[in-house]
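By convention, each integer encodes one residue's backbone shape. The lines below illustrate.
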Amino acid sequence: MPKPLTFELKGETQLVVTRDFDAPPAVVWRAHMEPSLVKKWQNGGGEGWEVAEVEIDARVGGRYRMLHRGPGYEFQITGIFLEVEAPHRVVQEEIMLLPDPTPPNIVETLFMARGEGTRMVMTMTVPDAEVRQQMMDTGMLDGMELSYQNLDALEAA
């Protein structure tokens, strides 16, 4: 049974999120990289939220964009893939449009086999501690966990 995500602050600029899934790495990878699957589970705003648009070109130099829409608000996540080692590791530069752009966030995500499941470790590196705190103050971690619970349910189906 998956456990809720945990997080750790490292230095002044990093946030490390760890989450276990019952599915193997290839399945968790696909759920993060295939637009039709992303739309099914990534609605971390809760009731009334959706990922309205998803574009993912999961190759080095490829771009991605996700439009999240909820009651009276929407935001986008955009970026470029810097390194792709399917299905175990991806590094990407990410910018959120809230609507103003956030400073770039470099995200390394590892999908590691753990028994029959996956341990996902996501390390986000931002310019400074202030940006990291602003990012956390958005409720991002709660939203991530809500989405990961949806992913758990999708994997179980």
User: Anything to note?
Assistant: The chain has a mean pLDDT of 92. The two ends are 14 Å apart (CA to CA).
